[in-house]
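Reading a protein record of the kind used here takes little practice once its layout is understood. Each number in the token line that follows is a code from a learned vocabulary of backbone shapes. One such record is shown here in full, so that the layout can be seen directly:
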Amino acid sequence: TAGATLAAMGMASTATINAGTSQYTFWTDTLQVNTRSVLLKGANFKMIGSAPSDALANIKLFIDGVDTGKVGTVGSIQGSNYVMFDLASSPVTLTTGSHTVDVRADVQKGTNRTMQLALQQAADLTITDTQVGVNIAVTNVGPVAFTAKNGTTVTINYGTVTTTVDPTFSSYTNITSGATNAVIGKFTVHAYGEDVKVSSLSVLPALTSPTL
């Protein structure tokens, strides 16, 4: 049968990122395919840490830097939370050679908590031999029996706020002199990571050649 081997993890052991970070790489490794092409039909990654299960959003699986098009769903397996990718309906073909597998996600909450993704066992990758039609077990370099592959333990910073001009508002809107309750600006304020209390807002109007 074909063979699939995961290399040694090259990720940092710990990292600290801001809540609101988009498409951060929580897990990555190199998968070596031997003998013939295989089909990747699924992948499950255990969520470890103190952050809640919904701390991550828009979780995606990338192969060689290309989005597989599947967004991971978070569910429970034997009492533990897992990120699950179901590729059975459109499996990814992995040709012989080396392939980089990444899991990236947006961080939407979980401030001052930790999160780590881990490939716990060989069965968490569903890989099928394209010729024989049977599933094969991924191994470590050697090949030796599979051992857990833990990604970086990420600490999520306290909440942050971003402010942008509302795209529905035109900065060139004409305001009639003497108008009351006229809209002179619209802004979108987005809190990441946790509820954020806004104590004050300062707005500085910039008037260009006003006619009174």
